[in-house]
Amino acid sequence: MLMDNETNERCTNLEIKLSYLEEFVKQLQDEVVKQGKTIDKLTKENRLISGKLQDVLDSLEEIPNRKPPHY
Predict the structure, then answer these.
(1) Residue 5 main-chain phi, psi, to 5 deg
(2) What's the CA gap between 37 and 45, in Å, rounded?
(3) Which stretches within 1-71 are classed as H helix?
């Protein structure tokens, strides 16, 4: 059975739309992967900074809370 001209045109239009959608999904996937890598990097940096901050806070607690000798 041969497709009439209108059906053929509709199929062609659907194929074109599908092609654009496939490209759009690929771009979205690439962006999600990129953002995931950025989030991982920022998470590691946050942990490092938090650890360093905790070290500083721990060292501050070791300083005795008393008046200097000249008082």
Answers:
(1) -60, -40
(2) 12
(3) 5-61
